[in-house]
Design a protein that fits this description.
alpha/beta, Rossmann fold, 2 domains, 16 helices, 11 strands
Length: 350
């Protein structure tokens, strides 16, 4: 925390760290905070285990203090994230937090809330702190080493499931072979394995850390698919897997597409915490992955097959002039709810 921090954390630290004398030099509260900004206080309790006078007395006060703290730290969704973190500290969901706002809080709960909020104040992503992120209605475990699933990526699932229905209607039969390129947390692979019971889904990632999260989620959310061999998560190069496992009925991909030169424009939660290899495209060539998939599509898609690629907000404009050069593929782009051209759809006619 900065040396001029105000509010409940500052009050706790002031109580815990009175001015002292070290080598003949008086060092007060603000100097101590500056020297120990990365070390949260060890306790919020006084003599006999009682709460410090400045600590919140109930959930309502804790929530108000948490929101104020996050607002001062510049957290964009301070209200929502205060609710999530306080609820987590109290062992509640958001609904029950609001039903129990007058509930007294005990020192152990205050300590838990403090620790969570200090981490968020340092701009660690809220979903890393909570350890979960909902995706397409399911809770996915998440932490360092894997990209936090975004709502925009759900458009890949929605379009894939629409296309699966169209295949059956057109007499092509159910989707039977699916590749998730750069599976990350496994949110796409696991969701599709659950939604497409006739399909075998392969998720590939080059990051061992990400693959650990993917396997954890697959085992927790789709154990039967794992046991039946319908959901496999493998370490490797996603483009090599695209070629070696062809032909595919469905390919989904959320490749890294941010230009390294735009790193400074990202929020600290993204720039400083999420894996760079999942965010940034090759230096000076952020379109390389999408272009490689576009060029490979005629060779790797089965008749009637489809590939869905998530795009950056300005990527479609750069890729669109290349569509006519790829023979045997119909290319189109779908917008997300914000109006951005978000999903590149590549279809091989049957």
């Amino acid at each position: 925390m900065c040396r001029h921090e105000r509010g409940w954390f500052a009050a706790w630290w002031r109580d815990l760290v009175p001015a002292r004398v070290d080598g003949g030099l008086a060092i007060g509260y603000h100097r101590w905070v500056a020297d120990h900004a990365d070390k949260p206080p060890a306790s919020t309790t006084g003599a006999g285990g009682a709460a410090k006078p400045d600590a919140p007395k109930d959930a309502r006060a804790m929530l108000a203090m948490a929101r104020g703290f996050l607002e001062k730290k510049g957290v964009e969704s301070a209200r929502l994230e205060a609710e999530l973190l306080v609820a987590h500290a109290l062992g509640l969901d958001r609904l029950h937090l609001f039903l129990e706002l007058d509930r007294p809080v005990v020192p152990a709960e205050i300590d838990r809330a403090r620790d969570l909020l200090v981490r968020r104040g340092r701009r660690e992503p809220a979903h890393y702190i909570l350890g979960l992120r909902e995706f397409h209605g399911r809770p996915f475990a998440i932490g360092r080493g894997a990209l936090v699933p975004r709502p925009e990526t759900e458009h890949l699932v929605d379009r894939a499931l629409e296309r699966a229905k169209e295949r059956v209607r057109d007499g092509l039969g159910p989707v039977s072979k699916v590749l998730d390129m750069g599976t990350g947390s496994g949110c796409l692979a696991t969701t599709l394995a659950l939604a497409l019971p006739a399909a075998r889904v392969v998720g590939v990632d080059s990051s061992p850390a990400a693959l650990e999260w993917a396997r954890r989620n697959a085992r927790a959310l789709a154990p039967e698919a794992c046991d039946a061999g319908r959901l496999a998560l493998e370490l490797g190069d996603m483009h090599a897997a695209l070629a070696s496992g062809a032909p595919w009925d469905l390919v989904v991909a959320n490749p890294p597409y941010i230009d390294e030169r735009d790193r400074h424009t990202l929020a600290p939660e993204v720039r400083d915490w999420e894996p760079a290899e999942a965010l940034f495209g090759p230096s000076g060539d952020p379109d390389r992955h999408a272009l490689a998939i576009l060029e490979a599509a005629p060779r790797v898609l089965a008749p009637g097959g489809q590939c869905l690629v998530e795009l950056g907000h300005d990527q479609a404009a750069r890729l669109r002039p290349l569509f006519p050069r790829v023979e045997g593929i119909v290319a189109r782009v779908h917008k997300d709810l914000a109006g951005h051209e978000r999903v590149l759809e590549l279809s091989r006619p049957d």
